[in-house]
Amino acid sequence: AQSVSQHNHHVILSEAASLELGCNYSYGGTVNLFWYVQYPGQHLQLLLKYFSGDPLVKGIKGFEAEFIKSKFSFNLRKPSVQWSDTAEYFCAVLGLDNTDKLIFGTGTRLQVFP
Amino acid sequence: GAVVSQHPSWVICKSGTSVKIECRSLDFQATTMFWYRQFPKQSLMLMATSNEGSKATYEQGVEKDKFLINHASLTLSTLTVTSAHPEDSSFYICSARDEFSTTSAYNEQFFGPGTRLTVL
Questions:
Q1: What b-and-e string marks burial along A48-77, b requiring 16 or more CB atoms within 10 Å of the CB?
Q2: Over the stretch A3-22, which tens digit does the pLDDT of each residue have?
Q3: CA-CA distances (angstroms) from residue B43 to A49, A110, B39, B55, B94?
Q4: How far is CA A24 from CA A2, A7, A35, A106, in A?
Q5: Is B34 in Cβ contact with A99 (below 8 Å)?
Q6: Of A44, A101, A105, which is closest to B111 when you measure between CB atoms?
Q7: pLDDT digits (tens, 9 = 90+) for B42-65
Q8: Strand, helix or coil at B74?
Q9: Strand pairing of B109-111 and B90-97?
Q10: Residues of chain B with C-beta less than 8 angstroms from the C-beta of A45
C-alpha cells in the first residue's frame, strides 16, 4: 500500500533561513509526486509536481524539490524563507496504477518569524 | 482557470440532522471529483471518488450510507452527511481533475476551499 511520511511536523525559522522539508514515500511502482501548501484559512494550492524527466523541479514562490528515486524521497527546499511562507505543507503521492488515489503525508507546519 | 468551489464554507447542525455539501468546478468539466476529510492537525484522507453518472467509489472504512455522494453533472458533486453526529465534525474538502485541459496534467487535482462541519 502507498504511504507518505513527513518527518518534520513543526518547523520554526527566522526570515532568510534556508528550508528543507522531508518527504519519503512507500510505493513499488511509478509515481507522480506533489507538494501542496495551505495558508492559514485558505485552500490547498499546488506548489510543484513531478511527473517525469528532470528530478529537480521548480515550483512557485521560489520553492523546489528533488526526486531521488533510490531513496524514495521528494524533499522540498527554499533557500531563503519569508514570513509569508508561514503555512502547512503537504507532500502527496499518486501511484500510477491507481490514479484516483492521492495519498497525503501528515503535513508540516512552518512558522517563519521576522 | 481550474477553480473549484464549495458551499457552504462552514455549517453547524444538530445531531441527527443531515447536511449537504456542494462541490463545483467553476470553469472546467470534471467527470471525476474526490472527497477528502481532514481532522485537526492531521492530513487529508480520501473518503470517496465521485464519478459523474455512476456510483461513487468509497474507501475502506467509509460508510456509503452515511456519506451519500451524488455527481449529477460534469460540474457538480454533492456530499450528504446523513444523521450527523458529533464525531462527524470535521473539515471536508473536495477536489476535481480537469481531464480535458490542455495545460494541466491529467493527474493534477484542484482543491476546493473546504467546508467545516460542526455537529452539536
A1: bbbbeeeeebebeeebbbbbeeeebbbbbe
A2: 899 988 999 999 999 999 99
A3: 18, 15, 7, 26, 14
A4: 11, 8, 12, 11
A5: no
A6: A44
A7: 789 999 999 888 889 999 999 999
A8: coil
A9: antiparallel
A10: 111
